[in-house]
Structures are given as C-alpha cells and as structure tokens.
Amino acid sequence: MSRFRIADQPFDIAPLRARLLHERAGAFAAFEGWVRDHNEGRPVHGLRYEAYVELAEAEGERILGEALEKFGILDACAVHRVGDLAIGDLAVWVGASAAHRDAAFDACRWIIDEVKARVPIWKHERYADGHAGWLHPRQTTPSDAG
Amino acid sequence: MSRFRIADQPFDIAPLRARLLHERAGAFAAFEGWVRDHNEGRPVHGLRYEAYVELAEAEGERILGEALEKFGILDACAVHRVGDLAIGDLAVWVGASAAHRDAAFDACRWIIDEVKARVPIWKHERYADGHAGWLHPRQTTPSDAG
Amino acid sequence: MAKVTLLYFASLRDAAGASSETLETAAPDLSALYGEARSRHGFALPVERLRVAVDGAFARWEDAVRDGAEIAFIPPVSGG
Amino acid sequence: MAKVTLLYFASLRDAAGASSETLETAAPDLSALYGEARSRHGFALPVERLRVAVDGAFARWEDAVRDGAEIAFIPPVSGG
C-alpha cells in the first residue's frame, strides 16, 4: 500500500493512524496542516490546492521511503488534499510510528518539511479584500506556513 | 475545561483533537505513547500505570499552562491513562495547535517530556519471563521510553 | 507530636504493604519523617531520589511537619 | 523538430490560459524550451526558479528535448 496519497476529497484520519499501530511501536507523532483564517497578516477566505498528481505521489512516496531509512522509524504515511478548501479544513496529514519518541517526532517534522519543499502542489489563496493568487514562495522556510 | 486529565478507562482521541481546532490554527501536532512489546530488550506482556491523581492533574495542568506561555501556541491538551494496559493500548495523548508548525511541534515535544519528568505517574511492567516491577528511573532521558 | 497521614505509591506502597497510614510523629521536618518511615518499612529509595507533597501540592523536605497534614512521598516517576 | 506536450500548473497555467499544449519545437534542451514558452506566454518566473519534469519524473534543464515527451514546468511549490 502506498504511503503517500493525494486526496481530492476530505479524508478520514482514523484509518491512517490505525495502519501505523504496531506492537513494537511505543511512540506515534502526527502533524496536521489546517486552513487558517490569515496568511502573513492578510485575512484569508478560502483556498485551493492543485497538484501534478502523478509526480506528487511519486515524490511523496520517495520522501516517506527516505524517512524510514533516515530515522529508523517503523512506519509513516501522509495524505495531502487538493481542490477547494474552507477555513478549518484539513490540508495535510502526516503520521510516524517508532519505538521511541525522538525518532517519531524527528521523522514527522522532516516529512512535512520535505513535502512542503519538494512535492509539486500549489496553493491558491483568496483574500478577504478580493485579491487572489498562487503562492510561489522564493524559498520554503520552517515558518512560512502551518 | 481542564487541559490535563488522568483517565482510568480507554479514551477517545477525536474529541481531544476537535477541541484544539481553531480558525487561527494552521498547524496541529500530536503525540501518542503506546504500550510496546519490549522495554530495554525485555519482552513485555503488559503494564499498569498508577497515579497520585490529585497532584498529577494539578501538575499536568501547570505544564500545559506553561507550554501555552512558553511557545505562544493557541491551545493544547493531554490525557494519561492509569490502570491495566495491554500491548498496543494508548497510554498518553498530547496535542497542540498553533498558527505555525514550529510552535506546534516544539510545544508538543516539550509537553510530553515534562509530563514524563514531573507528573506523579508510575509504570509497573510485567515481563514475559515472569518478573515484574515498578520503574523508578534515575533520570528521565529523551530516549528512555516511547 | 503531629498526627499525619502518609500516602505511599508504587514501590513504596508495595514495601509498606499499605497505600496510606495515619500516625503520630515527632519528626521536625518532612525529611526526618521520611527517614522514620524508611527505617520502619525498609524502603530502598534514599530521600535524595524522592519528592514530597503536602495536601496535594509539592513541598520542600525542610518544611515542618504540620498536624493534620496529608503527606505523599513521591518516588521517581515513570509516566508516558 | 520534436513533437512534445507541455503541462502548465498554477500561475503558469493561468498565464498560458491552458493546462497543456502540444507543439513542435527545435529547442535543443529543456531550458531553451522553457525560454520559448516563456516569451510566447509572458511567464513572469525565470527558469532558475522552476524545476522541470519529463514523463512524470524530475529531469535536468540541460536534458535534450525528446520527441513524444510530456514535459512539465514546475513553479515553486506551496503545499502543506
């Protein structure tokens, strides 16, 4: 089963968490990115994510494989939404299970950072003032978004 | 509503996550500690957690209040099980929501570390070889457990 | 003499064979009170590895023993 | 001449007014191919800020343009 998926509809997180349960796992870390009501001080009304799905799923899969190798975790998976999202909607979910919490936290953090930096997904924001636009950041920094 | 709770029965995590949803929150980090099938190389059959409930809830509440202050997060909460647990059971849940992911991850990690170091809860492990005993670690290190 | 209730948890409770006991003591402070309990029950843990709480709040070992207090000796914790 | 299909995403698609186009090109490499598309559609983003993919896998700008290839110009990503 693939570890990374692009979802064009809202998805349940319970089965994602359940597939990471493992008798050897003592620790589980998860990250969720939610659509928030502002970005860099501007009120946001909603947004749209679009992906180059074929390449996004291949690159996401590569990131999760690298995380398993790099952090010695037991398993990990991630799902990223595309389409129209409203404030409070779940945009991305990442989970990692490991024997110990160091590895679970570090892997989870690394995966979301890599997904944001490498996976071909683009965010289109609509602002309260009527403006709208694609976000093409110059560089992904740890605090650029959720 | 209190942010820290000792639970003597299995608890649902969905409502815990739901209460951290917030329009200003772009990031959510969660940690779960699960009973794993070994500890320091010894096969574990099951365990029991016991708490000095009154003091544990007060100290846990203090930790979560400190985390809100220290990391500027929007909200956080945690629940720790007591009683008999089997392999795979959820022992502790921590969640934190924030505008950005740095704060959510850092706060979540800090909270579980502080809970393990400060809250009067004790673990009694039963091993496959018939031995059993209370864990009174000399010092809580980041890798001592889940 | 102060009349106090002592709470025991985890390995201390196992060693004492009770989760609490009520007794009269002349111990001048909480550290001395633990010393008495330790020799009576043969606790393995030295005072340096414990914390102490009075009436549900952490206290200091040098605090005086107050009449009517509920005192908990807190062995090293292992939650999480 | 090579016949290729170009895929456009996000701001490139908006500027091109199409999510893909099929055309014949004499561009020697992918970088030159983007240059052609950029002047035709007025793309704001310089090649240095993009990545390129061929047939669903990341490629290098200096790679030759292969007949029949499906080529995607990848603007800076903003998922998460």
UniProtKB/TrEMBL annotation, chains A, B:
Question: Membrane-spanning regions, if any?
Answer: none
Check the record and name the CDD domains matching this protein: MoaE
Reaction(s) this enzyme catalyzes, per UniProt: 2 [molybdopterin-synthase sulfur-carrier protein]-C-terminal-Gly-aminoethanethioate + cyclic pyranopterin phosphate + H2O = molybdopterin + 2 [molybdopterin-synthase sulfur-carrier protein]-C-terminal Gly-Gly + 2 H(+)
- Return the EC number: 2.8.1.12
Annotated GO biological process: Mo-molybdopterin cofactor biosynthetic process
Pathway per the UniProt entry: Cofactor biosynthesis; molybdopterin biosynthesis
> Which EC main class describes this enzyme?
transferase
Q: Name one GO molecular function term.
A: molybdopterin synthase activity
Do the record's keywords include Transmembrane helix?
A: no
Q: Which InterPro entries match?
A: MoaE_sf, Mopterin_biosynth_MoaE
Give the UniProt keywords, A-Z: Molybdenum cofactor biosynthesis
The record's section on Gene3D superfamilies has: Molybdopterin biosynthesis MoaE subunit
| Complex and partners | Heterotetramer of 2 MoaD subunits and 2 MoaE subunits. Also stable as homodimer. The enzyme changes between these two forms during catalysis.
Record family assignment: Belongs to the MoaE family.
UniProt-recorded name of the protein: Molybdopterin synthase catalytic subunit
Organism name: Luteimonas marina
UniProtKB/TrEMBL annotation, chains C, D:
Its cellular-component GO annotations read:
molybdopterin adenylyltransferase complex
Q: Which domain of life is it from?
A: Bacteria
| Signal peptide positions on this chain | none
Gene Ontology BP annotations: Mo-molybdopterin cofactor biosynthetic process
Q: Which UniProt keywords apply?
A: Nucleotide-binding
Q: List, alphabetically, the SUPFAM superfamilies matched.
A: MoaD/ThiS
- GO MF term set: nucleotide binding
State the family it belongs to: Belongs to the MoaD family.
Protein's recorded name: Molybdopterin synthase sulfur carrier subunit
Q: What is the lineage of its organism?
A: Bacteria, Pseudomonadati, Pseudomonadota, Gammaproteobacteria, Lysobacterales
